[in-house]
Design brief:
Order of helices and strands: EEEEHHHH
Number of strands: 4
Helix content: 25-40%
Number of domains: 2
Number of helices: 4
Distance between the termini: 42 Å
Strand order of the largest sheet: 1-2
Largest sheet: 2 strands, antiparallel
Strand content: 5-15%
Length: about 110
């Protein structure tokens, strides 16, 4: 079968979202599955995560917990509570070091 967008090119796979055959140029592989560019552009049905970044909207200190919350699609309060519990459990030092490293490494959104 030929690609639905490029009839002159041979289709290499079928899009798992819409079922259309796609060529190598239209093929987008996400989580080992083939999608066409049109379905990726309409990614409302797909769960594409953006890169991990520090949040500028949900920040208390450097935005690390807010960025983690946005990445994992959870409330930032839960990430902050988990960070405090980890700090209490590990006497604070490893959690503070990890937070500082992430604050330095992660870009702002």
């Amino acid at each position: 079968m030929n690609c639905y967008r490029h009839p002159d090119k041979e289709g290499i796979a079928a899009c798992v979202a819409c079922g259309n055959f796609i060529c190598a140029e239209c093929d987008v592989i996400f989580r080992s599955r083939h999608y066409c560019k049109a379905c990726v552009e309409q990614s409302k049905t797909l769960n594409f995560k953006s890169a991990l970044k520090r949040s500028t909207r949900n920040r208390m200190i450097a935005g690390v917990c807010g960025g983690l919350a946005e990445y994992f699609s959870v409330d930032p309060t839960w990430i902050r509570v988990a960070a405090v519990l980890l700090a209490v459990f590990f006497m604070g030092v490893p959690v503070i070091i990890a937070y500082l490293i992430l604050a330095i490494i992660l870009p702002k959104e």
